[in-house]
Design a protein that fits this description.
Blueprint (H helix, E strand, L loop, with lengths): L2 E5 L4 E5 L3 E2 L4 H13 L5 E4 L5 E2 L1 H16 L4 E4 L3 H9 L7 E3 L2 H15 L2
Parallel strand pairs: 2-4, 3-5, 4-6, 6-7
Antiparallel strand pairs: 1-2
Length: 120
């Protein structure tokens, strides 16, 4: 399995265990994101700490996660961007769309903070 999935009460943490998030493994990530969404999870953190390269199919998978959380009224956070991945995200101007934090734990904290704000 190229992705670890940890389901908590209010958030799903997906950890990529791949060095390259490309056309070979992006469909598996899309599947995990869609499955979590269909199970009713509206908040997700995608940890890309181990990923050193991403291509357009990988970015497409990330956007699927973003869209599914947004459409469900939740939060999608990307964490652990390595320099090459961060550069591509910036070039693609997705840093204006995605919520990006340094660590998965900060992503979880952000999700919980936004959940509290939504319930006020």
């Amino acid at each position: 399995m190229k992705f670890e999935v940890e389901k908590r009460e209010k958030v799903v943490i997906l950890t990529a265990k791949v060095e390259k998030l490309d056309a070979l493994c992006a469909p598996e990530l899309k599947g995990e994101l869609v499955l979590a969404s269909k199970e009713g999870h509206r908040n997700m953190v995608l940890d890309l700490n181990e990923t050193r390269y991403i291509d357009s199919s990988g970015l497409s998978a990330v956007l699927i996660g973003h869209r599914s959380c947004r459409d469900a009224g939740g939060t999608f956070v990307v964490s652990g961007l390595q320099p090459a991945v961060a550069k591509l995200v910036s070039i693609s101007q997705l840093d204006n769309v995605l919520k990006i934090v340094p660590t998965a734990q900060e992503g979880v904290d952000l999700v919980y903070m936004e959940e509290v704000e939504r319930n006020i």
